[in-house]
Design a protein that fits this description.
Layout: H1 2-21, H2 25-28, H3 30-34, H4 39-49, H5 56-72, H6 77-102, H7 107-114, H8 130-142, H9 152-175
Helix pairs in contact: 4-5, 4-6, 4-9, 5-6, 6-9, 7-8
Amino acid sequence: MVRAGRFAAVMGALLIAGQAQARPPEALACALQAAPAGLDARVADVILSRDGERGKPALDEVRALTDACAEDQFLTPRQRDAYYIYVIGRMGRDVLDARLTAAGLPSAVIDQALDIGPGNANNPAEKVTQGDLRLVAAAMGSAGHDPAKITSDGWGLITAWIIATANMFDGLRDLD
């Protein structure tokens, strides 16, 4: 009887571990789908402003959403933090992409210049460097967008895009 109980416990642990490792895209979208309207824009504003203190209410809301989803997905504490970072980056990217497009700045050029985005290297990034911005400026010029005509707001959007992208892919990488 003890062996049967131990076997059931091991199988249960393996089943839970398997669920945590093999998350379908819908599982990653859990917090995004549960988010109230406008939260993604508030998160993008936090990334854009880089003022975590002022953005604390939005970030706390994201934390509550990601914790609820993480609970359902049996994520470890480390994976919970990674999921939180992923969701912040993903929400930011979704909104910032539209803002970049409205400003006439194609996000694909930024992704290509820095080898970030889906299917690219997505090197971990602690911060945006002057070298990153020079690469983006050169790529924008090559794509027909005069970097000298990009406003300070445009450069702010570019920087926020890079930060959101790094967060998204860092979180994704750390989930597994």
